[in-house]
Amino acid sequence: MLDLSRYKGIVFDMDGTIIDSMGTHSIAWRKTCEKYGYPFDADYLYGLGGVPTNEIVKLLNEKHQMSHDPDEVAVFKRETFNQLKDKPVVIEDTFEVMQRYQGKLKMGVGTGADRNNAMTLLTDSGLLERLETVVTSSDVTHGKPHGETFITVATNMGLEPSDCVVFEDTEIGRKAAKNAGMDCIMVINGKIELP
């Protein structure tokens, strides 16, 4: 069993870590790539989990020598995702951690999703009431792998980054935790990988 008693706070990534929405994101990205002529690479896009959508568009433009407006493409992707009306599924492994430490450790979410999307998913899944703070790509200047998202979560909870542990499902998220000065526990395919 995972012992987190040496920490004062837990920071959860959202998509793919506490909510299984990555499949829906993949469908939305496939439709977005089709519309804008990008070759669709599910593994590449999954690996960018946690990176703000308009930053992903900049990377796609660079990779495929295209020049689409990042904001326009991001809006299309977000609207496509929202039209899919996916009922968020809570990931059992991380939810058990959340339940076990509720009231014992402070908890927050640090996500690359925009604020409206994050608040909708967290509300619809019943997780929002369990959290002290939610920090989204709308709330920071530098998205993951920069550490700002996770540092802001710690600050909002009144904690030092070193007092927090991050749960993440992508390598970019793991780097963001490291850049924030936090320990990181990986969640791979919905399962916690014990360090």
Structure description:
This protein has 195 residues and is an alpha/beta fold. Helix content is 43%, strand content 13%. It has helices at 22-36, 42-47, 53-63, 70-83, 92-101, 115-124, 148-156, 171-179, and strands spanning 9-12, 106-110, 133-135, 164-168, 183-188, 191-192. The chain has a 6-stranded mixed beta sheet, sandwiched between helices.
Task: Describe the secondary structure blueprint for this structure.
Blueprint (H helix, E strand, L loop, with lengths): L8 E4 L9 H15 L5 H6 L5 H11 L6 H14 L8 H10 L4 E5 L4 H10 L8 E3 L12 H9 L7 E5 L2 H9 L3 E6 L2 E2 L3
Parallel strand pairs: 1-2, 1-4, 2-3, 4-5
Antiparallel strand pairs: 5-6
Helix pairs in contact: 1-4, 3-4
Keyword list:
single chain; 195 residues; alpha/beta; 8 helices; 43% helix
Largest sheet, in brief, is: 6 strands, mixed
Contiguous low-pLDDT stretches (5 residues minimum) are none
**Gyration radius, to the nearest Å?**
16 Å
User: Which term fits the overall shape?
Assistant: globular
Distance between the termini: 11 Å
- The number of helical segments is 8
Strand coverage percent: 5-15%
Biggest β-sheet: strands ordered side by side in the sheet: 3-2-1-4-5-6
Order of helices and strands: EHHHHHEHEHEHEE
Strand runs, count: 6
What is the helix fraction of residues, given as a range?
Answer: 40-55%
Structural class: alpha/beta
Average predicted confidence as pLDDT = 94
